[in-house]
Amino acid sequence: MKELDAQAKAKLDALYERVVEHAGSFLGYPCNQKFDYRPLYRFLDHSLNNVGDPFRSATFRLNTHDIECEVIYRFAEFCRARQSDVWGYVTNGGTEGNMYGFYLARELYPEGLVYYSEDTHYSVSKILRLIKSRSIMIKSQENGEMDYDDLYETIRLHRDAPPIVIANIGTTMKGAVDDLDRINSIFSELALPAHYIHADAALSGMILPFVDAPQPYGFDAGVDSISISGHKMIGSPFPSGVVLAKKKNVERVARSVEYIGTLDTTLSGSRNGLSPLFLWYALKLRGEDGFRRLVESCLAVADYAVEQFRQRGIKAWRNRNANTVVFPRPSDRLVNRWQLAVHRDIAHIIAMPHVDTGMIDAFMLSFEQDLAQRSEGAA
Ligand SMILES: *Cc1c(COP(=O)(O)O)cnc(C)c1O
């Protein structure tokens, strides 16, 4: 086998060191760093490409479509849909799933008007520009949930356009869950039978199915499509995600494409055949009970972090069923040191499975040092 020259090798080694070093201080982003996929490494010697619709057999056989269908069915259960009622595929991440949801909504309701809250992920405004949908931003409440009075009034003023609402099932900064029951009752109060809800459940789509008292989040609560990231709660060496949508809507849109001679249901053409395999493996290995325990322990670590902040007189809090701990924005030095996500005057820690109380303790230590240094600087 041909080998890299010494300089290139050194570069690889340095990169590897950097990755290992930073993995130990990864507190601010919702990507689980704790996984072991070694039994799947032999598949890395092959080129697995899931191009096309996983539910339609193609001539191209070097794929994992059968495994992908199983993954979709599993997520259908998590999202409280009957297998026969939904269609979906494994995406490149939450963003692609959101894009698929909007694409479907726009095809169904070309005159639709999209509503999304201030706390919505940045991928959404990008997608709306891309698909050239008309949209209106709705105010948020302090905890990150949509302001339902503002939603009501805004939809009321535009009753002629079918509403397409993006509901956050776990906002990026605060882990807030928009109230699907409230959103649906707004539709009925205003007598708007033509409507669409896309749920952006990037992180909490793998939390709420496993808690005792979840907020409404799934197809049983009236969502039309839902996007969940695979590399967030589940954890994966590369990004992935899952999108699910009501099959009857997908078929209506697919037919119109069939008319021009193709049945091209996915947004991406070539798709990573390893992603469904890794997701399938993780789902099988842990099982539903395993995810229950995992989520429970994340929420316990989140509570521990809130408590540690409060003991130090810092106002920290979290939303119900969220592993995102919100606190006042610290210094940039601390933000960099712990890879914290910040927005204006707040920051957050996300208690993902690789975050334990020891890591929180270490963070608190540097948080205290930082506070001390800042008050010295001020004196
Ligand atoms: C992370 C996230 C996304 C985007 O997901 P990617 O997998 O990074 O594309 C979308 N929405 C929310 C709420 C997120 O937290």
Q: What this model shows, in words?
A:
The protein is an alpha/beta fold and 379 residues long. It has 2 domains: 120 residues, Aspartate Aminotransferase, domain 1 (Alpha-Beta Complex); 246 residues, Aspartate Aminotransferase, domain 2. It is 41% helix and 13% strand. The chain contains 10 helices and 10 strands. Strands 1-7-6-5-4-2-3 form a 7-stranded mixed β-sheet, with helices on both faces. β4, α6 and β5 form a beta-alpha-beta unit. α8 packs across α10. The longest helix is centred in the last third of the chain and has 38 residues. It starts with 5 loop residues before the first helix and ends with a helix. The mean pLDDT is 93.
> Nearest-angstrom radius of gyration?
22 Å
- Enumerate the spans where pLDDT stays under 50 for 5 or more consecutive residues: none
Helix count, DSSP H or I runs of 4 or more residues? 10
Overall spatial form: globular
Number of domains: 2
Distance between the termini: 63 Å
Helix residue percentage? 40-55%
Which ions and ligands are bound to the chains? pyridoxal-5'-phosphate
Q: Which strand order spans the largest sheet, edge to edge or round the barrel?
A: 1-7-6-5-4-2-3
Note the beta-strand portion.
Answer: 5-15%
Average pLDDT, rounded to a whole number, is 93
Query: The biggest beta sheet, please?
Result: 7 strands, mixed
